[in-house]
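Priority: medium. Attachment 1 of 2:
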């Protein structure tokens, strides 16, 4: 998934399909699952394109669109086990007793930091740095 108009339209379509009770494709099911994890975004999806803009939700400024894309990217990494070190970090944190959604957010935070930092600097995503950050994640540190 990318942070583009096509993905924005897809996410809004999934939100609409969910509300209308229509069938959902496999990737869209994963997006729908992320939406299930974030009921606080539900009202935002009905705002259409405005859902792409940061909103104040529960006292924090969040872009539901960006958050959903990041969740879906990390979800895909875990399901496909690519890269493998993401699955290892996920399993390690779960084994330490961290809740699944909290684990996802820890991984998303590392991925997002690297992704947006690389993008701003016009550099490619640093897979080695990502792997390093995954190896240092620990429930005890949170």
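Attachment 2 of 2:
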């Amino acid at each position: 998934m990318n942070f583009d108009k096509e993905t924005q339209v897809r996410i809004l379509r999934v939100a609409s399909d969910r509300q209308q009770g229509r069938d959902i494709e496999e990737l869209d099911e994963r997006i729908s699952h992320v939406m299930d994890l974030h009921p606080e975004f539900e009202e935002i999806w009905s705002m259409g394109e405005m859902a792409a803009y940061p909103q104040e939700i529960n006292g924090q400024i969040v872009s539901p669109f960006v958050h959903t894309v990041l969740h879906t990217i990390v979800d895909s990494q875990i399901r496909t086990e690519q890269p493998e070190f993401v699955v290892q970090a996920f399993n390690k944190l779960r084994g330490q007793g961290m809740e699944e959604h909290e684990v996802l957010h820890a991984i998303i935070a590392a991925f997002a930091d690297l992704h947006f930092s690389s993008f701003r600097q016009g550099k490619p995503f640093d897979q080695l740095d990502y792997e390093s950050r995954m190896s240092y994640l620990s429930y005890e540190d949170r």
